[in-house]
């Protein structure tokens, strides 16, 4: 998008940096000018780094956040999916451990008649990534062109790919700079990064799963709620229906952590089985997707419809079809042995008896990364076969010597380090926890 002549002739990055440094509100033209000039390579990294730090220290107003999101959104292609019937709805999670809900929700909502154009990310740090899980399926291609993305979406109702060069290129450049300048954590910059990519998909509505707890990026519920409110308001200012669920990440979601293992658990849920917490959250999020997608009058009705789509096998069949259309081996649905397999397993036994009082969720995620199931740097390769299966969750009774978890590994030294972390992460008490933390803490937005 070319700059208006009046802006391009008068825009100076130093003026925008000083104004934000001094805590003043930037205009839409100033933000648009900065984003466009940086995307085109007309201003250097060091000036944008200074501006990013000023945002971290001074914050942004709601209009500024919306203007930044819009400028990043329009720095590239905004998909027009109006030719596809029905409403287009996506879901985004802020990241956690064992969070494989996207792989359940995309085919589940598509089976209900909603178009789900999902552009996802890779794991970084202790959190897993949707693209890494999908690539554990032999042959699955997450690098579709926009034309191929449309074709898959039109054929089976859902498609799951990574960010393309055409989608929000400003975010790609800004995120790389934030990653090395200590400016990742700003809720305003997080909001603009997430929402610019999601709204570029051409969606009508968005369901946000904002994690809070020991395994989340937003450890405190206050911080998670602030980010959720910011994203909901930004989306609504841009004419979209948005709801955010603040959900628990004080322990891993489900029992399996690791890319191929999580695909196995996704298939279990789509068969009507799987861990209760994962099933419950998937149905809650699906209820909102169906409600915002206009196929159910209420969220409760959407949950009921979703449960029926699982029990009938329609959701699983949609997942199979998407795998096939994106080049993957659909036989993994019936035969989990076709997924990458770890060479060895190792039990992690409890050193005491009692009840699981807490699990340091981030440590479990880090243990999976140590095994090779995640990346500490973007360029690291991932071993899809390794991971952890939990046998105990918070509140469960455990006997001395009873397995807390099983490690799936390919390297002995890595397994030994992971085992130490897992042992240290599980706290055992003489009595069960006084109360069970709810899976969904609160809901923000969704009334529009």
What does it look like?
The protein has three domains: 13-59, Transferase, Pyrimidine Nucleoside Phosphorylase, Chain C (Transferase, Pyrimidine Nucleoside Phosphorylase, Chain A, domain 3); 89-336 and 441-445, Pyrimidine Nucleoside Phosphorylase, Chain A, domain 2 (3-Layer(aba) Sandwich), CATH 3.40.1030.10; 342-429, Pyrimidine nucleoside phosphorylase-like, C-terminal domain (Aldehyde Oxidoreductase, domain 3, Alpha-Beta Complex), CATH 3.90.1170.30. 45% of the residues lie in helices and 15% in strands. Helix 11 links the parallel strand 4 and strand 5. The strands form four sheets. The protein has a four-stranded mixed beta sheet, with helices on both faces. The chain has a four-stranded antiparallel beta sheet with strand order 6-9-11-7, with helices on both faces. A three-stranded antiparallel beta sheet has the order 10-8-12. The chain has 17 helices and 13 strands. The radius of gyration is 22 Å and the shape is globular. Residues 1-8 have low confidence and may be disordered. The protein has helices at 5-10, 13-21, 28-39, 45-58, 62-73, 101-111, 130-134, 146-156, 169-179, 187-199, 221-237, 259-270, 276-292, 299-311, 314-325, 361-373, 412-425, and strands spanning 89-93, 116-120, 158-162, 205-212, 241-248, 256-257, 344-349, 354-359, 387-390, 397-398, 403-409, 426-429, 440-445. The chain is an alpha/beta fold and 448 residues long. Its EC number is 2.4.2.4. Keywords: Glycosyltransferase, Transferase. It is an enzyme of class 2 (transferase).
